[in-house]
Please model this.
Amino acid sequence: QVQLVESGGGLVQAGGSLRLSCAASGDISSINGMGWYRQAPGKQRELVARITRVGTTNYDDSVKGRFTISRANVKNTVDLQMNSLKPEDTAVYYCNAYVRSGYYEPWLEVWGKGTLVTVSS
Model:
């Protein structure tokens, strides 16, 4: 089994910064794309940012220029640096990754349990 464990959420004032981290552990041979999604109360889960194994990134327009995603392949981790936070960034943030346990095994999509980010005005 593979687990993704997020950390770094919390309460911050508007304009502040937070850094989220996600660590993958378990039966992992390789990890392909990794990303962060978020779900605000009453809304659907949405993509925040994704990063490929070679470092290609894409961001939702609402976070471009404020958030930065990065990963460390050796450590099986992905981080999200969030600056200039706004109240509308308040949500549960989920880590996501495509992993496999062997070269001939299928890719599996794995989700973390989420970490709450609250931005006060």
In short: The chain has a mean pLDDT of 96. The two ends are 40 Å apart (CA to CA). The chain is about 0% helix and 60% strand.
